[in-house]
Amino acid sequence: MKLLHFLPALVVGLGLLGCEQAAVPNVTSAVQPVAAPVPAPANKRIGLVMKTLTNPFFVEMEKGARRAEKELGIDLKVKTAAQETSIEQQIQLVEDLIADKVDAIVIAPGDSQRLVPALKKATDAGIKVVNIDNHLDEVAVKNAGLAPIPFVSVDNEAGAYKAGQFLVKGVTAPTELAVLEGIRSADNAHQRAQGARRAFAENKHISVAASETANWKIDEAYSVTKAIFAKHRNVKLLFAANDMMALGALKFLQESGRTQVKVAGFDALSEALTEIKAGRLLATIDQQAAEQGYQGIALANRLSHGNVVPTVTLIDTKLITASSLP
User: Fold this and answer.
1) Domain CATH number, residue 233
2) Which of 6-20, 53-67, 290-304 bottoms out in mean pLDDT, i.e. has the lowest?
3) How many domains, in total, are found in the chain?
4) CA torsion sign, 122 to 123 to 128 to 132?
5) Cα–Cα nearest to 299, from 153, 188, 151
6) What pLDDT score was predicted for residue 36?
7) Domain limits at 165?
8) Global pTM value
């Protein structure tokens, strides 16, 4: 009988327990799916096309480009032609980079016009283009249907003017002068010749006896200088539009005993600085090749990320003489 007394209470208790259990939501314990990691964006692939590595100027340019590669986290592909006159090879290098589907091409063109069609193909393929060192011909670029291409260099006319002005400084008697020009189809060669002639014209005692191209080459400069002096024995001053040609001219002048002839160059190569210290070269122009390489790659990287960049970036030139060297 006592058990019967407990049954109603037990039933009520069980009922309440059932109600409590029913009130608790049915929660299923499960591991939430983790989103797949988003892959880091691939490094931008940028091609650098230079004229050659036989000229130390372009060796320095590559050093600056490599510094940009390291600092900016890009994949840099350096391509160089055999010689500064190897224009067809440069065109093929551009074609190769187009086929390789790089994000951008930075080019120091050997010729201001002949590279334009290949660069048009690059832009048509969605590849960004930056021009360094030698300016592409603006008319050729426009006629090809290209928008203005960002350009990084120095004011070559102003730099050559500084060197030319220093070369003829203090000349007070009639004096003959010779010029070694670069590749005549290259804009920077034209600008340097123009700047130097502007300086010479300011001194009424200076007459330009000869102005010949040696195509930026040391051996060709040796031969051209030899030919100039065979015709113009009284030349006392010589301006070379780059240091490689200045070094070639100096070699002939030293071998022929014409050590009194004053020579100025352009580029501030280490070999030229050695000649200045030794008193054989009068002056040169530092156009900061490494900085040109660095800035060219930096602009290409910005363009490949969709950023707007300046149309022209000019880097300072510096006149280097014996008094400015340590």
Assistant:
1) 3.40.50.2300
2) 6-20
3) 2
4) positive
5) 151
6) 52
7) 156-286
8) 0.82
